[in-house]
Amino acid sequence: MTLALYRIDDRLIHGQVVLGWGQPLDAAFIVLVDDAIAGSEWERELYRMAVPPGMAVFFHAAAECPAVLARYRADPRPGILLTAGVAAMRAVVDAGGVSAVNVGGIHHRADRRQRLRYVFLSPAEEQELREIAARGPVVTAQDVPSARPVPLDELLHLEAAS
Amino acid sequence: MTAPAAAAGPPRLPARIRAAILLRMLAIQGSWNYETLLGNGVAFCLEPALRALPGGVHTPAFRTAMARESRYFNAHPYLAAFAVGALARAELDGEPADRIERFRTALCGPLGSVGDRLVWAGWLPLTSLAALALFGWGAAAAIVVLTFLVLYNAGHVALLVWGLETGWRQGMHVAAGLGHPVLRRGPTVVGRAAAFVAGVAIPLALARVAGRERVLVGEMLLGALVGAVIVVRAQARLEGWRFALLVVSAVVLLSVIR
Amino acid sequence: MIAADAVAVALLGGVTGLDTVSFPQAMISRPIVAATLGGALAGAPAQGLLVGAVLELIALETLPVGASRYPEWGSASTVAGAIYGAAPPATVGALMAAVFGALIVAWIGGWTMVKLRQRNAATARRHQAALDAGSRGAVVGVQLSGLAADFARGAVLAAAAYVALVPLEAILVGRWAVSEHLTRAVLVATAAAVAVGAMWKLFHATAWARWVFLGGLALGLLMVGAR
What we know:
The complex is a heterotrimer of chains A (162), B (258) and C (227). Chain A has helices at 15-25, 35-38, 41-48, 65-73, 86-94, 123-134, 152-155; strands at 3-9, 29-33, 56-60, 79-83, 100-105, 113-116, 119-121, 138-141, 150-151. With 162 residues, chain A is α/β, with parallel strands linked by helices. Chain A has one domain: Phosphotransferase system, sorbose subfamily IIB component (Fructose Permease, 3-Layer(aba) Sandwich). In chain A, the strands form two sheets. Chain A has a seven-stranded mixed sheet with strand order 3-2-4-1-5-8-9, sandwiched between helices. In chain A, strands 6-7 form a two-stranded antiparallel sheet. Chain C has helices at 2-21, 31-41, 45-59, 73-86, 94-126, 128-132, 136-175, 180-203, 209-226. Chain C is built from nine helices and no strands. Chains in contact: A-B, A-C, B-C.
């Protein structure tokens, strides 16, 4: 197995990730790529509390991805890679080896427009998602496994759909 | 960055304010929406505590805190009590705004993840299955319903009270409180208990639904086995209730067009 | 007569619909409670409990996790309990018809919750300036508005479902051509499949849970045999 899911979700580790995706994927570890959290001990401590016993969580800054991702991909157990935003996921994709990116939750902000009930995007984020897709990975929006994956082209043409 | 040191011997949250917050915690999801999620609910719950800010409700400090606390927040609604307690303490201690905002953001994931595993995937199925076992054993409707409600809400209210108290006492050091064995190992222990009760409850409940005659037992078992395999194999694409709707719709259709 | 009953069902459906997420999440919205209360409205809590137990087995896998969309069991189960409670005992097809109605209403209820959440967002946007200014009146007002809207949502849904399902159930029961034994067998097998699937989804990753489940199953089967 390898990193089975590359997910953008500003809530990072929460129920949809641990239960919704973690259980069907049998995920054994989570790789959390976030510059601020990687540099903050008390935030790392909080996120360690978010995973069940037996599930490991690793923290990295985006700049470390080229050096560390191969190690996680070589792990025989399934894992999930999380970023809070599009920019960090782009750094992950730039490191290579990503075949699909899941947009799982990007929430409201003044400069963002609603695309799905759980996806709000700014023009800059839309452009970055297009650039990620142009590098090869299939980009879809899907909050939980039982929901329909919404392709990027469709996502960017949706207006506040349900 | 490190969290600020907690003041020695935190002031006690007055009982009247604690009661007001706990009552409001029951409605924390009252304005749940896809933009700020629980955000407005957190401000709604914190408001009784923020009234204790120096100068009361007509000050810039109160308004700034209310505005900050009504922004995006996401957590399990019961475990949000930890956040409400900790944020009340942080606001009344006058912690810097940027630190409160970082802290607030960092609480979302753990409180969501732990709460979902402990309550939605643990305590709720456990108590629900206990009620189903009672039903299957032949208990009267009032006994089944009251047992479930008392059992479930004992855990519900205990989590709210404990969370608020722990959050208030530990403030921005609440990560230590989240490391409590109830939250760390609780989901596993409750999950195992629920698995056991499920084993007892499911056959008992189904036997009562099937009735006393016990006909077509082999067909029922075979159907259940095949159906369970379909539900498990298709779990990423087909939720169980949709499977049930498909089967029930087909039977209804076949039955009335024959 | 239906109109008077519908008012009672609407009030109870409003309360159980509100309980699903908004207030107080005391789980009176769970099918085993809501359907029993619905049955009690019709003077038959035991029949309400029966349909509630079937729906509870189906609802076991529903995790109200975050922003995901899920069936709204509260109002739906209230209606199912009221309808099945009003049917004469041992009416062939009535239980299946009530479960069928509940599943449809729960599905629609999930959609109405999405609409409610969109409406709550619009309300918050209308008060954005006041919220940004830290107005306690705006915070409390947005919260109370959401609570009232959710109660209304559950009440309207329950009333509409009741009015639609009472005649539908009469039609289905009148034309029901499958034997009661076979009908019950399909219902039991379906509920069992979903419940066992739910248990597997919830606990397969928990160490020892499958063995503990099998131990419980052995005990449960012994108890069934002993009765």
